[in-house]
Amino acid sequence: MSAMGNKVTIPFRHGTLDTPIRRARMVAGDKIGLIDGDTRLTYRELSDRIDRLRGGLAEIGLRSGDRVAGLAANSARHFEAWTAIPTANLIFNDLNFRLALPELQFIVDDSQASVLAADSRHWETATALRERCESLQRLIWMDDGPSPDGSPTWDELAEADPAPTPPDLDADCVASITYTGGTTGLPKGVMQTHGNLVVNAKHMLWANPLFFEDRFLHLTPMFHSAGVANMYAQMLVAGTNVTCPGFDPDLVGRMIEEHDITVCVLVPTMINMFLNHPGTAERDLSSWRMCLYAASPIPIALLRRAMSELPCGFSQGYGMTEMSPHCTQLTPADHDKALAGEPDAVRRLASAGTPCIGVDLEVRRPDGSLCEIGEVGEVTVRGPNMMPGYWNRPVETAEAF
User: Fold this and answer.
1) How far is residue 295's CA from residue 190's CA, in Å, rounded to a whole number?
2) 109-139: per-residue pLDDT in tens?
3) How far apart are the first and last CA of the chain?
4) Among 262, 270, 191, 258, CA closest to 225
5) Which of 34, 181, 251, 376 has the fewest CB atoms in 10 Å of its CB?
6) What CA–CA distances, in Å, run from 363 to 134, 180, 230, 302, 370?
7) Considering only CA atoms, which of 18, 56, 302, 286 is closest in space to residue 160?
8) Pairing, β 313-319 against β 290-293
9) What sign does the CA torsion over 46, 49, 55, 59 have?
10) In this model, does residue 50 exceed pLDDT 90?
């Protein structure tokens, strides 16, 4: 803290990505923090594995600033990667496994990733990328058992001597590069710092409080910013994380019932499929207290049906990768008022809500002037969760800013 005249300034840093796991270990070390199939890890065990994974990543020659790509479905190992890789001061480039091989090759070449960690279902694509991408020096097997070709395994890395976070790691270090979909040209790598991701998790907790007792079902792909953000938010409150390899309406219903899930994220098409699945009506979903939805507008008729047939409250988020990603929220209270028939609240169901605490947001015309209420324009947003820029794209960065 420093004083300048009658003004006091307090340097405020949001920490690095070891902050959530370190806090969870401190307040609830013996609590189950991660469930993945038959795997159960307490926060102490999870923290210990992350310390050892940092050591293992160093042992295979990775150094601060190196890029590590990922190609895997949701799993405990994938969850660990999102803390272990960035806290080793490496940059995680988690690949969208839905992309075609040439698109993945472009992203790996652009990021110059030297290592790619992949699970069994994506190993063939990983080996093809190793042959095509000059920067890729090795693969890491991110699944059970030995690797098919003698590559090191994720679990072998987790047997290394524990390593502390590097001394050059701080909140301004880049933690990840997440590539946009390329709908307006070639994919652009959005750089997200440790500070971006941690403060974004806090924004999400302000918008949708999570609690120590919550059990969060992670079925949003972990390569997506929305899926990643909820991991950190849940760890900050030392809640339990439950991984789901992908969306299947029957599987999701069974997991909510089996694990007493309290919170999960579904996009509108998933909500529709879940409601129409014949097994849903037979499930005990009473533990489910909140459904977060995002990614696309939801038909009001579908939302009303979901609100009447499911036991949970609903909350809509809007964001963009460049904001790590949270920008606005239509809260459970907004939905409850609409369900009660309040006219203004019913109208608001078609909106993305209001700016979340910590984010400045305006809607502007093409000339930069502010839109009137109800006028269509472009969302313009800033905040401490805003990216520092696009990877190796100074011109596009300048245009966006």
Assistant:
1) 18
2) 999 999 999 999 999 999 999 999 999 999 9
3) 31
4) 191
5) 376
6) 43, 22, 26, 27, 6
7) 56
8) parallel
9) negative
10) yes
pLDDT per position as a tens digit, 188-241 = 999 999 999 999 999 999 999 999 999 999 999 999 998 899 999 999 999 999
Residue from 81, 98, 86 nearest 155 by CA: 81
Query: How many other β-carbons are positioned within 10 Å of the β-carbon of residue 1?
Result: 6
For 1-30, what is each residue's pLDDT tens digit?
233 334 444 445 578 999 999 999 999 999
Q: Which two structure tokens, joined as six digits, stand for 13? A: 């840093």
Task: Tell me how long the chain is.
Answer: 401
Q: Please report which confidence band the pLDDT of residue 345 belongs to, taking 50, 70 and 90 as the band edges.
A: confident
Among 3-12, 87-96, 333-342, the range scoring the smallest mean pLDDT is: 3-12
What does DSSP assign to residue 171? T
Q: Reduced to 3 states, what is the DSSP secondary structure of residue 379?
A: strand
Indicate yes or no: pTM above 0.90. Answer: yes
Assign 148 to helix, strand or coil: coil
Residues 6+ apart with CB under 8 A from 49: 41, 80, 84, 158
Q: What is the pLDDT at residue 1?
A: 29
Answer whether 319's CB lies under 8 Å from 325's CB.
Answer: yes
Strand bridging mode 313-319 / 326-330 = antiparallel
Q: How many Å apart are CA 140 and CA 242, to the nearest integer?
A: 23
Q: State the residue for tokens 């420093």.
A: 2
Contact by Cβ (8 Å): 74, 98: no
Structure token pair of residue 200: 């974004």
CA distance 332 to 337: 9
Question: Pick the residue with more confidence: 13 or 174?
Answer: 174
Let me know the angle formed at the C-alpha of 61 by 131 and 19, rounded to the nearest 5 degrees: 110
SS3 content of the chain, % helix, strand, coil (to 5): 40, 20, 40
Residue pair 306/285 in contact by the 8 Å Cβ criterion? no
What secondary structure does DSSP assign to 58-124, as a single string? Answer: HHTT--TT-EEEEE--S-HHHHHHHHHHHHTT-EEEE--TTS-HHHHHHHHHHHT-SEEEE-GGGHH
